[in-house]
Amino acid sequence: MLRRWLENETKVTLFCVILGAVSLALSLSGALGELLPFDIAWTAIILCGTPIVTGACRALVMERNVKADMLVSIALVASAATREWFAAGEVAIIMQIGSLLEDCTSARARKGIEGLVKLTPRTARVRRGREDVIVPAEEVRVGDTLTVLAGETIPVDGILTKGGTSVNQSVMTGESIPVDKKEGDELISGTLNQYGTFEMRAEKASGDSSLQRMIALAETADAEKAPVVRLADRWATWLVFAALGCAAAAWLLSGDFERAVTVLVVFCPCAFILATPAAVAAAIGNLTRYGILIRTGDALQRLAEVECIAFDKTGTLTYGKPAVTEIAAVSPGSTSDGILMLAAAAEQNSEHPLGKAVLAACMKGGSQLLEAVNTTVLAGQGISAEIASRRVIVGKPGLMEQEVIDMTGAAWKLRELYGRGATVIAVAADGTLMGLIALSDTVREDTPDTVAALKEQGITPVLLTGDNEAAAGSIARIAGISEVRSSMMPEDKMSFIKESGRKTAMIGDGVNDALALSGAYAGIAMGGIGSDIAVESADAVLVSDDIKRIPYLMRMTRKCMARIRQNIVFSLVINFIAIILSASGVLVPVTAALWHNFGSVFVVVNAVLLLRERDR
């Protein structure tokens, strides 16, 4: 238990800060001055100061790198050397508080890539002679014949050679509706076979599959996204030389070494270092109250610089589920309600998402389901059944042609529905076409307002989707997005984002978006319906899928960066004034430490005011 606790650096640092703060308070009050042979402030110096000094020395000797901790170490050692214990302890504690704030907003290990790895099929059913043998997926060779059962994941990229099925490709393309496959069609590794058994020919080995390529690209994108270096560390070398120069000048001009120590204490950039983590912690706390989780402080800075937002379609701008949007009666005497009742009766035991959507629409209207007998599922095509002594066929328009059912009267309506990007189901009874049912993914009510609000902030919206051009265009028109890219695979989305030349944030919800989320300048995931992989690949997560919060997210990140700039300017001004007062002898080490403390407190309070911001 103790070992596990000691391995948690944040908990150890917090314990040291609390104990150090108590010791400084006792030192300032002089309560234990007569009972102890040493100043109690040494507790803060050892617990909080030792890690700073050793870290600065290690960076200087082993990495040949001067960090802001070096300037802090100089001030700490100089204060201790002149027996200014309180000043030394105060500097050490403020630095450790800054470290705690950074720990609270530091990057957690990304698990998105691990999630992609878990999707990789472990085994494959390969034809060896006359039998199917289950082997590790890595042993599949190009040209092997594989058998895939219903509910299994396709192990490698290949071609369907025997049978027909419907494949859920949302993992790779984001399409909300399963894609029907027939002989000769391409199959993608990592996608799910929903119905029936089929045979396929492997076109790529497991290591070269689409899913493995996606994993490799995600790892590369993640490695390229380096964390932001602390501003104080960037200027550390100049700060050290400036501090030593000012301290030396104060000593030479006054002949008082205490003044030099005082200059070093006030020159210590504690407020400067606290400027960023304090504001970031406050902004993250504010956003969390509105259901927006920010994974890193670095992500907050990148989100504030975003110029363009790329939206996924399915599950982001839309609800991600097909719904009946229109019923067109094309036969004399047929009605919309009658067509829906026949289709729902045939589909009442179907597991197909389209069948479930038709059934849900019928039940929503309060209709009573008719009894269906002799139901036959036509894999990848549709379904047939006997309903009220009539042979009813429900399925793709192509199925009607196979059944020699005249579609001429519905041709114009079919073209219109396809032009809107809808998926169409035809319903026929006793050899006569009754009508068409259109299904589409529906746009979220808040989508148009969200897009409009982002445009007001100067952010350009773009739609990137794996769906076809008609479906993408239809959703984009409703949302108010003019720039659209359709039929995109995960790597296509990532390539577009990287080649756009803009600082682009990606908003998505599915596994297929994980690559673009990790490769974008910043990633925002839909947390409620989003996959674990998408969530873990993103920088920000909308916990309740409330996209109307996105404009507030962008405003808050920009306010946070503005507050950081205010804090930096204030800390530099107050340090400059303190240097003049110290060199002139107005401030001594103890009062300098208090002045120094005032600057740090102001920076923190100014940052905490971000918690009062509201999303109106």
Q: Overview of this structure, please?
A:
With 616 residues, this protein is an alpha+beta fold. The two termini are 46 Å apart. The model is unreliable at 105-113 and 220-229 (pLDDT under 50).
Quick rundown:
Residues 105-113 and 220-229 have low confidence and may be disordered. 50% of the residues lie in helices and 19% in strands.
Could you estimate the helical fraction of the residues in percent?
40-55%
**Average predicted local confidence, pLDDT:** 78
Largest beta-sheet characterization: 7 strands, mixed
Unreliable spans: 105-113, 220-229
Number of DSSP E strands: 22
Q: Which structural class should the secondary elements be placed in?
A: alpha+beta
| Molecular shape | elongated
Q: How many angstroms separate the termini?
A: 46 Å
User: Strand percentage, roughly?
Assistant: 15-25%
How are the strands ordered across the major sheet?
10-22-21-20-11-18-19
Number of DSSP helices? 24
Computed CA radius of gyration, to the nearest angstrom? 33 Å
Task: Label this structure with key terms.
about 625 residues, 22 strands, six-stranded antiparallel sheet, alpha+beta, 24 helices, elongated, seven-stranded mixed sheet, about 20% strand
Provide the fold topology:
Blueprint lengths: L1 H5 L2 H21 L12 H21 L5 H14 L3 H20 L7 H8 L3 E6 L2 E6 L8 E4 L9 E5 L2 E4 L10 E3 L4 E2 L4 E2 L4 E5 L7 H15 L6 H4 L1 H19 L2 H11 L2 H20 L2 E3 L2 H8 L3 E4 L1 H5 E12 L6 H12 L5 H12 L7 E7 L3 E6 L2 E6 L1 H6 L8 H9 L3 E7 L2 E12 L3 H10 L3 E5 L4 H11 L3 E3 L4 H10 L4 E5 L5 H6 L2 E5 L5 H6 L2 E3 L7 H34 L5 H20 L8
Parallel strand pairs: 11-18, 11-20, 18-19, 20-21, 21-22
Antiparallel strand pairs: 1-2, 3-9, 4-7, 4-9, 5-6, 5-8, 10-22, 12-17, 13-14, 14-15, 15-16, 16-17
Helix pairs in contact: 2-3, 2-5, 3-4, 3-5, 4-5, 4-9, 4-10, 5-11, 5-24, 6-7, 9-10, 10-23, 10-24, 11-23, 11-24, 12-23, 14-15, 23-24
